[in-house]
Amino acid sequence: MEVKSILEQKKEWGCLEIDGKGNLLSASPDFFQHFNVTPSELRNCTVNEVIKYPAFQSSFQSILQKPVFFGTVAGRSCLLRLTREDDRFFLHVLVDQDEVRPSDILSFAQSLAGTRKREAALGYRYSFDDIIGESPAAKQIKELAARVATSSSTVLLTGESGTGKELFAQAIHGLSTRKHQPFVAVNCAAIPDELFESEVFGYEAGAFSGAKKEGKPGKIERAQHGTLFLDEISELPYQAQGKLLRVLQEREIERLGGTVSKHIDVRIIAATNRDLQALVQEGKFRQDLFYRLYVFELQIPPLRKRKEDILPIAHHFIHHFNGELHKNVQYISPSLEKWLLENPWDGNIRELKACIERAMNLADSDTLTLESLYLPSFQGAEPKNMQSVDEETAEAGLSLKEEVEKAEISAIQRALRQCNGDRLLAAQALHIHPASLYRKISKYQLK
C-alpha cells in the first residue's frame, strides 16, 4: 500500500482527544471499531494506559516536534501524530505498522529528504514547521509572518539577538511564490567597507587587481527572482547604505568596473537587533533607506515573553543533540524545568540551545538535571545582583545611553578576560558577530 494513500485515509484509523495532564477526554467511533475497545474501557484512563511511548511521561510538547512517530496503541504498533488546539491534544492513529511495508516508509522518507536537499541547494532549509512555539506571542508572530509571506513586499524583522530572525526569513521565503528561486543571505556586519561593492554588486573582469578574469556576480545577482536577506542591516556603513538605497529604488545594479546596468527582481527581507528609528535620529542610518525597509515590520518576541515555549524548545534541542551526541535523554528533572522557566534568557533561543548542548555533553542518564548544566561563570549569580547594578547606575545619575554603554563595555571586558583576549571566542560568548565586536572595541577604545 502506498504511504501517501494511507496518510490521505488517516481519518479511518481513529483519533484520541487528550487534556494537558494526559487524561483521555474522548475517542472517535472508528477508534473503538478498529481497536476493538469500548467507551467504558477508556473511561477515566490516562494516555499512558493506552499509548506506550516514553516521551509521554515527560511532556506532550516534546512530541509536537516530531511530525509522526511509532507507538503502541492497545498492544499494536502504529504510526501516530500528535497535534494541539489550545489546551487540548489530538492523537491521530495514521496507520497500523502491519499494514505498510518498511520499503514504503523508507521511500516516503527519502522523498522528504530529497525535498530538503533541493531547498538547501537554493539556500534555505527552514520552514514554519521548524519554528517551535504554541504561546500566544509565538502564534501571533507566525500567523503574521505567514500572511505576509505570500506577497513580494519588503519585510523588516526586528528583535533581540538570538530570537531566530533568519529562521523566520527562510520560512517566509519557503512559503512565498519565490520558494523555487534562491535565498541569499548577506551578513552586513561581516563585509568590510572596501569589499562591500564587489561582494554585493559583483564585478567585471579586470575591475581591480586580483579580480577573477571572468568577473563575479554579486549577492544581489545571485538572488535574482528570489529573496535577498540583509542580516544586521543596522551595521551597514553609511556610504554603503546609499549604494543599497539606489538599488532598491531603481531595481537595477551595475557591477564594479562595468558599464551596463542589469534589471533585478528580488524580494528584500532585512533584520536587525537595534532600533533603526533611533539610529536615524542619531544620523547613523539613512532615513530614506529606513522607509524603504519599513514596509512590514515583524517584531520577534524574546524568549522571556513566551515562557510557555521554553520547555518545548528545550525538548526539541534534546532530541537534536541525542542524535548528534549519541545520547538517549528523554526527560528533564523538575528542578531543571523550574530553572529553565525562571532564567531570563538574555541570549534567547541561541542561549537556550547552548545551555542544552552543554548539559547533553555531561548527561549520563536519560534525564537532564540541574547539576548537568555546569555553569561555573554564573555560580552564585542571582537576579537580585542585577538590581544592585541598576541602583548603582541610577545613583550615579547616568543617562540611559550612558548606562547602556557602561554595561556594554563591562560585558566586553569580562568576555575578553574570560577568553584570554581571544576576540573570536569573546564574540561567540557575547552572541554577537566578530565584526560587531571589533567595531565596539574600536568605539570604546578597548585593548
UniProtKB/TrEMBL annotation:
<dbReference type="InterPro" id="IPR009057">
    <property type="entry name" value="Homeodomain-like_sf"/>
</dbReference>
<feature type="domain" description="Sigma-54 factor interaction">
    <location>
        <begin position="131"/>
        <end position="361"/>
    </location>
</feature>
<dbReference type="Pfam" id="PF25601">
    <property type="entry name" value="AAA_lid_14"/>
</dbReference>
<dbReference type="Pfam" id="PF00158">
    <property type="entry name" value="Sigma54_activat"/>
</dbReference>
<dbReference type="InterPro" id="IPR002078">
    <property type="entry name" value="Sigma_54_int"/>
</dbReference>
<dbReference type="Pfam" id="PF02954">
    <property type="entry name" value="HTH_8"/>
</dbReference>
<dbReference type="GO" id="GO:0043565">
    <property type="term" value="F:sequence-specific DNA binding"/>
</dbReference>
<keyword id="KW-0547">Nucleotide-binding</keyword>
<dbReference type="InterPro" id="IPR027417">
    <property type="entry name" value="P-loop_NTPase"/>
</dbReference>
<dbReference type="GO" id="GO:0005524">
    <property type="term" value="F:ATP binding"/>
</dbReference>
<keyword id="KW-0804">Transcription</keyword>
<dbReference type="InterPro" id="IPR058031">
    <property type="entry name" value="AAA_lid_NorR"/>
</dbReference>
<keyword id="KW-0805">Transcription regulation</keyword>
<keyword id="KW-0067">ATP-binding</keyword>
<dbReference type="InterPro" id="IPR002197">
    <property type="entry name" value="HTH_Fis"/>
</dbReference>
<protein>
    <submittedName>
        <fullName>Two-component response regulator</fullName>
    </submittedName>
</protein>
<dbReference type="InterPro" id="IPR025662">
    <property type="entry name" value="Sigma_54_int_dom_ATP-bd_1"/>
</dbReference>
<dbReference type="InterPro" id="IPR003593">
    <property type="entry name" value="AAA+_ATPase"/>
</dbReference>
<dbReference type="GO" id="GO:0006355">
    <property type="term" value="P:regulation of DNA-templated transcription"/>
</dbReference>
